[in-house]
Amino acid sequence: MGNAQSGGIPREILDDLKLTTRFSDSEITQWYENFQKQCPTGRITLQQFEEIYAYAQHVFRSFDTNDDGTLDFKEYVVALHMTSSGKSTLKLEWAFSLFDVDKNGYVTKPEVTELSQAIFDLIPKEKQANLPSDESTPEKRAEKLWRKHLQSRFSLTHAERVAEGEFIQAIQSNEAALRLIQYDHK
Ligand SMILES: [Ca+2]
Ligand SMILES: [Ca+2]
Taking the model in full, what pTM does it have? Predict the structure, then answer.
């Protein structure tokens, strides 16, 4: 039949995954496309897994609001709500908790640097090569996000840390900053 488009997910893999998981055609197809982009060889190496895992650890920590190393039902549902909501303020609240590594209610330069590294590692290699020169390394991205989009806006009040409201205000409707806090460059 040739019903799998070239580069698309092979039919038998799709059928097999639908039987063994509860995911829909479109979900599996989307993940397949993302997987192919992330891993052009079609395989995840240990090194790539560790990069993905570094980001995953940050995501987990941002969901684990009481910091006990597990997600209870409430944390889990709040996580689903924040990440799947169409509301941009909710997503930005979540982004803030992602960047606030030590959960003290403020984002600092070292935290921005840490997340910039984890996010950068998720950008497919061929897209890394096409990034603007001031966004082409994790350090440059952290510097730009921190200095241009966060710190400079609030340097009159305090230069070393940014509170949640300020973070959201600085990133909201700011395409250039939004690009730096996510890895999925469309
Ligand atoms: Ca918890
Ligand atoms: Ca912090």
Answer: 0.76
